[in-house]
Amino acid sequence: MTPVVQAEELSRWYGIVMGLNNVSFTIAPGLTGLVGPNGAGKSTLIQIITGQLQPSSGTLTVLGQVPWNNPRLIQSIGYCPEREAVPKDLRPLEWLGGLALLSGLSGAAAAGRCETVLDKVGLPREHWSKSMGQYSKGMKQRVKLAQGLLHGPDLLVLDEPMNGLDPMGRQEIANILKNLAAGGVSILISSHILAELESLCQDILILNWGRILASGSQREIRTDLKNWSEELSIQCDAPEKLARCLFDAGVLLGFDVGPEEDSLHIRVKDATAFYARWTGLLLESGVTVQAIRSQSRSLKNIFDKVTS
User: Fold this and answer.
1) What is the per-residue DSSP string for 179-241?
2) What average pLDDT does the structure give for the chain?
3) pLDDT at site 225
């Protein structure tokens, strides 16, 4: 699969401050999440990908081309910045129409394209006649997303697209992004809302102090982590009996019978081996299980483990 973004020994510094420090990675087509604490280098990386900054050393290509000083490639990249950049005195069709004309579309084509992208991002038509200063945070986010899609990009880069949205608004934006990805648009999302990225993105890029700490699917990252232990919570009718059976089988690193009478918490080192034996061990124990869930597979747990 041809990478959408590929970096080789990429660095960017500002005087003596390192924004990115000799990073190499690839971003595959589809939905990819970019995560990291403040100051990790996410903004620097986004600016290089979108052609706003030139690397100090190393290389980065987008769709096989260098983005710096490359207007033809930039036409294939959509970008939604974190800050609210919509003019409050204009209506969305006026704002987007002007941008469409600047991108080279004719008047008729610009008008049609603006309506298409506003419908695609789910901005109700009854709000199109209002100035954007009257819009809620979620409506402004939709206009920004429409702006990024206006020229039909192959890669869409989003900086904190869920910021400030209520749970329903985040779910609506997530559904829009899934539909875009299903239609062939590759999307890179930088966000602090890890729960959204966990359910939305097939790949994750974890950045800290200008270095790539981990990349790939969540499962691949967990597999690569040293000292990773799977933590499970099991609701059953005889937690002590089940704990003894699992302990005797040698599949546990540790366990804890919870204060509730039907609660067992376990830690296993080799999750794949554990799940391969789980059914047989459960039948052997004779214990009835009502529920089992992982407590350590969330993106937040992975992020905390990697950055620690």
Assistant:
1) HHHHTT-EEEEE-S-HHHHHHH-SEEEEEETTEEEEEE-HHHHHHH-TT--EEEEEEES-HHH
2) 88
3) 67
Amino acid letter, 172: E
The residue with tokens 């990252």 is 221
Q: What is the mean pLDDT of residues 98-122?
A: 90
> Hey, what are 64's tokens?
């096989």
Neighbouring residues of 69: CB distance < 8 A, sequence distance ≥ 6: 51, 54
Q: Give the pLDDT confidence of 182-219 residue by residue, as tens digits.
A: 999 999 999 887 877 888 898 999 998 999 888 888 77
The single-letter DSSP state of residue 127 is G
Give ∠ CA 21-195-151 in degrees, rounded to 5: 70
Residue corresponding to tokens 């704990």: 243
Name the amino acid, one letter, at 47. Q
Q: Determine the Cα angle at 191 with ends 158 and 93, to 5°.
A: 35
**Beta pairing, strands 155-159 & 186-190:** parallel
pLDDT of residue 194: 81
Residue 48's pLDDT is 97
Taken in order of first residue, the domains within the chain and their CATH numbers are 5-222 (3.40.50.300), 224-307 (3.30.70.100)
Q: Would you put residue 216 in left (φ > 0), alpha (ψ -120 to 50) or beta?
A: left
Region at 39 (left for phi over 0; alpha for psi -120 to 50; beta for the rest): left
Q: Taking 90 as the threshold, does the pLDDT of residue 271 lie above it?
A: no
- In the chain the first and final C-alpha atoms are separated, in Å, by 32
H or E element in which residue 72 lies: helix 71-74
Q: b vs e for 81-108, b when ≥16 Cβ sit within 10 Å of the residue's Cβ?
A: bbeeebeeebbbbebbbebbeeeebeee
Would the pLDDT of 227 be above 90? Answer: no
CB proximity list for 81: less than 8 A, separation 6 or greater: 144, 159
In whole angstroms, give the CA distance from residue 137 to residue 135.
7
Beta bridge pairs of residue 79: 157
